[in-house]
Design goal:
Radius of gyration: 19 Å
Largest sheet: none
Helix content: 55-70%
Strand content: under 5%
Mean pLDDT: 86
Number of helices: 4
Low-confidence stretches: none
Length: 70
Amino acid sequence: PRLTPRSMAALELPQALALVAELASTDVGRRRVLALAPEDTERLSVRRGRFEEVGVLAAEELPDPASEEP
């Protein structure tokens, strides 16, 4: 399900995005923040899964290639 315009207004999403946009260091960043919109929950679940997988991989101890002998 998508967030309705009425729900976005009740959550003050436009105002929250405006506050975050003020923190952007470039005009491009400000425009990207202001263009953000809620996503479909299924698509968001897929993206969250990818993000969590990257976190798991980043936390793994990997051998240092510089310390390996040729």
